[in-house]
# Entry
Amino acid sequence: MMNSITADDFISFRDFDLNWRFTDPKHNLLPEEDLSEIHPLSRTMSIQLYEQTEKYLGNATLEKSKFQTIESHEITEDHEEVRKWLKEKIINPQTQVAVSWDKTTCAVTTWKIFCKYWDDFCYPSSDDILIWASSEGWILNYCHHEILEFGVLKS
# Structure
């Protein structure tokens, strides 16, 4: 999926609809070093990736028939505990992951950055997000009801 992304498929961070989550002190002001690892995709590429992955979703949850296993985790006030759960997934921190909020909004970052700032990527009551690495065989789903699902795809 992400192998087909080229430099032309990215947009500037200031043109990213969700840049305020990472650059506005009222929300979170990320260090430049971390911000530089979040790469927003164009509307066209976001649509392409969304269309390739929407088959893995049921009604805001992962489509059970597509996965070998699905592990769910309810979000609590303890954001460090959620971060720990994410890091237990034995994923290389430098793995490039796509984060798709909707059909037209997607960014690429590292697993390390996603885990570090998961609560800036995922907003309760408003976001339904898919996170995946094309070569890894897994998908993480964040449901606005504050549930994370980690699914390992069937072979």
Q: What stands out?
A: The chain has a mean pLDDT of 94. The two ends are 16 Å apart (CA to CA).
